[in-house]
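Section 3.1: Structural characterization of target chains.
Under the original work plan, the team committed to producing a structural model for every single-chain target entering the pipeline before any wet-lab resources were allocated. The record below documents one such target. The sequence was received from the expression subgroup and is listed exactly as submitted; it comprises 127 residues.
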Amino acid sequence: QVQLVESGGGLVQPGGSLRLSCAASGFTLDYYAIGWFRQAPGKEREGVICIGPGDSRPYFADSVKDSVKGRFTISRDNAKNTVYLQMNSLKPEDTAVYYCAADRGAYQCSGDLYDFWGQGTQVTVSS
């Protein structure tokens, strides 16, 4: 059974950091494109950062690139079958539920292209 489980969310002050984890079971993450997405209250889900299978270079969703580039990074730990989202210098506008998603053939950081989703983890940036 394919499953993605996110963890690591929480409440953090502006300027702080969080590392979200996305643990996969039932399939090997390294063979899949992985994306991190977020949905803020009252807003549509948006892509944040995605990475292709294997050693592909990560890329940002166009809609958030200027906002998160230099602060957010994505990485894989194939031994743990886990992908991470490192978020630094967090801002209140980063507050959202963050989701990871996987797909064999996704080529853009668009949620419509991803088949498998986790349940999400809440990130709240507030003083």
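The first strand starts at residue 3 and ends at 7.
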